[in-house]
Specification:
With 175 residues, the protein is of the alpha/beta class. The protein has one domain: Leucine Aminopeptidase, subunit E, domain 1 (3-Layer(aba) Sandwich). It has 5 helices and 7 strands. It has a 7-stranded mixed beta sheet with strand order 1-2-7-6-3-5-4, sandwiched between helices. Strand 1 and strand 2 form a beta hairpin. It starts with a strand and ends with a helix. Bound molecules: ligand AR6. The site of ligand AR6 has 24 residues, from helix 1. Ligand AR6 binds next to helix 1.
Length: 175
Amino acid sequence: MEKLIGRTRLVLTQGDITQADTEAIVNAANSRLAGGGGVDGAIHRAGGPEIMAECRKIGSCPTGEAVITNAGRLKTKKVIHTVGPIYRGRPEDPRLLANAYLNSLDLAAERGLRTVAFPSLSTGAYGYPLDQAAKVALEAVRQGIVKNSDKLDEIRFVLFGQAAYDAYAHALDHM
Ligand code: AR6
């Protein structure tokens, strides 16, 4: 599924983000940049130890912000590590989740990375309900594209499994 926002394509796909051939991929990291399970584990396994070595040098990343490293053995050029909120049903959860997408897109645009793949941040270990997260994610990405118009060619969501794909497809239909 695909939608054009200005001259930027917003694309929904299903698959494994470690295989993405975009110029940057986004990692669902934790604030200590310490690695873990889910997307984070998959990216470090597939990319090799170079990525963690850079994460150690950077040290940490507050919730909602983003940092960038090289991509080791991955096809992509750079990995943007961002930290979504651990879902607790607080009023600030949507803002923190939106910030993670917006700051990742700002960083990509600033570095001249024109194609970016995102996983569904916060919806695994961090427990954010998929339907709510999909709405926040797509609205934030729309805003980020508008803000960085002419600097981004394609923003792709690489969704893991049918349920995640369906939630994002539904949210995009209603956007
Ligand atoms: N490609 C794309 N999506 C994936 C992949 C993959 N290879 N693997 C899992 N997903 P999660 P979070 C989906 O838990 O909720 C880590 O331990 C998954 O199905 O990766 O932000 C970190 O170190 C889910 O829909 O990230 C943090 O401590 C989505 O990616 C914490 O988990 C996000 O799930 C971050 O939790």
